[in-house]
């Protein structure tokens, strides 16, 4: 059987949840050969996606396959650095919207990894999430379309640059503070759990403290958070408030939880989560607020169908990634 026909059969089996373990491995290896293969997979999968009335049956079959594949991939890939940088960075591949992914890791600087200025960049592209263990043992969950960077002298200089959103569980080290740098401000800690959201297109930077203590530094300004507090920097002003921290970090457990979020921001988050393009033709919808909970095993169509009854709109599916809201 030709490879093309064989892959089409695998994709068909994947869509109805009947892939065998050996076939799952074959499909996974093919997807990771090239971006072209992943694009082809999305196109073929789109051709097998049923109408909305059949989504429940489709999702049930798909969830079974995703569950098996995720367990198989749970053994993390490991990348070892040379010289002083002998700790392991563990990367966990994640399944989102039925599309197999691989965390992308890029290295910049001189070819010699013993170079103290060697920079490591770890990214979770749009529609994907990843989990990373840093050289000091701290754990980081990266949300969709997010990037962290750090140098290979991390053990003595625990500085991470963040673009996007990440949840941190920082190992305690009283001698070396852990610092998260964003374009808006820096978050300084010694050992704690917190979430930072710093997407450029949201218009604000937000830090939510789950446990421990953090210091927010912006120029000469210094602010301290206690567990259960959240701080937003918007239009040059800091706003502190008490929050339910479970809402802020629900994304790392593959859940959407929103509390009075503007529809415009909600749609942008859905675009990141599902790797789709949603166009809103009725601007009156943008300022409406929404609160609710969705799980990752729900398709974008199920989410939008629920939202349309709550907010009041109609949507049209115009392709695998293109959706219009009227």
Please summarize the sheet with the most strands. 16 strands, mixed
Choose one word for the global shape: globular
User: What would you report as the Rg, rounded to the nearest angstrom?
Assistant: 21 Å
Q: Tell me the series of helices and strands, N- to C-terminal.
A: HHHHEEEEEEEEEEEEEEEEEEHEHEEHEE
Structure description:
By secondary structure, the chain is α+β, with helices and mostly antiparallel strands. The chain has a 16-stranded mixed beta sheet that branches. The protein is built from seven helices and 23 strands. It has three domains: 71 residues, no CATH class; 172 residues, Sandwich (Jelly Rolls), CATH 2.60.120.1440; 72 residues, Phage tail protein beta-alpha-beta fold. About 20% of the residues have low confidence. Helix 1 packs across helix 2. Strand 15 and strand 16 form a beta hairpin. It starts with a helix and ends with a strand. It is globular and about 60 Å long.
Topology:
Elements: H1 3-16, H2 21-31, H3 35-48, H4 55-73, E1 77-80, E2 88-92, E3 95-96, E4 99-100, E5 104-108, E6 119-124, E7 130-133, E8 139-142, E9 146-151, E10 159-169, E11 178-181, E12 186-189, E13 193-198, E14 204-211, E15 214-218, E16 221-225, E17 229-234, E18 237-242, H5 245-249, E19 255-262, H6 263-274, E20 277-280, E21 289-295, H7 300-312, E22 315-317, E23 322-325
Parallel strand pairs: 10-11, 20-23
Antiparallel strand pairs: 1-2, 2-7, 3-4, 5-6, 6-9, 7-8, 8-10, 9-10, 10-13, 11-12, 12-15, 13-14, 14-17, 15-16, 17-18, 19-21, 22-23
Helix pairs in contact: 1-2, 1-3
């Amino acid at each position: 059987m030709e490879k093309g026909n064989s892959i089409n059969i695998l994709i068909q089996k994947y869509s109805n949840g009947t892939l065998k373990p050996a076939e799952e491995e074959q499909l996974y290896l093919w997807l990771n050969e090239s971006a072209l293969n992943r694009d082809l997979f999305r196109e073929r999968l789109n051709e097998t996606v049923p109408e909305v009335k059949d989504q429940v049956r489709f999702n049930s079959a798909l969830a079974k396959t995703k569950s098996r594949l995720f367990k198989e991939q749970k053994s993390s890939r490991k990348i070892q650095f040379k010289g002083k940088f002998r700790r392991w960075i563990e990367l966990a591949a994640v399944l989102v919207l039925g599309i197999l992914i691989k965390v992308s890791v890029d290295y910049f600087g001189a070819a010699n990894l013993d170079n103290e200025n060697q920079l490591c960049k770890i990214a979770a592209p749009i529609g994907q999430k990843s989990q990373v263990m840093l050289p000091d043992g701290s754990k980081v969950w990266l949300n969709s379309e997010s990037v962290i960077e750090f140098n290979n002298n991390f053990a003595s200089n625990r500085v991470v640059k963040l673009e996007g959103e990440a949840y941190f569980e920082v190992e305690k080290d009283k001698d070396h503070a852990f610092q998260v740098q964003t374009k808006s401000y820096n978050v300084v800690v010694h050992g704690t759990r917190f979430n930072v959201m710093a997407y450029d297109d949201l218009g604000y930077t937000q830090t939510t403290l789950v446990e421990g203590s953090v210091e927010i530094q912006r120029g000469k300004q210094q602010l301290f958070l206690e567990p259960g507090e959240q701080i937003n920097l918007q239009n040059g002003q800091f706003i502190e408030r008490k929050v339910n921290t479970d809402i802020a970090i629900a994304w790392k457990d593959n859940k959407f939880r929103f509390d009075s979020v503007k529809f415009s921001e909600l749609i942008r988050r859905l675009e990141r989560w599902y790797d789709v393009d949603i166009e809103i033709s009725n601007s009156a919808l943008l300022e409406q607020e929404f609160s609710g909970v969705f799980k990752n095993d729900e398709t974008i169509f199920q989410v939008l169908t629920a939202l349309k009854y709550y907010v009041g709109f109609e949507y049209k599916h115009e392709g695998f990634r293109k959706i219009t809201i009227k």
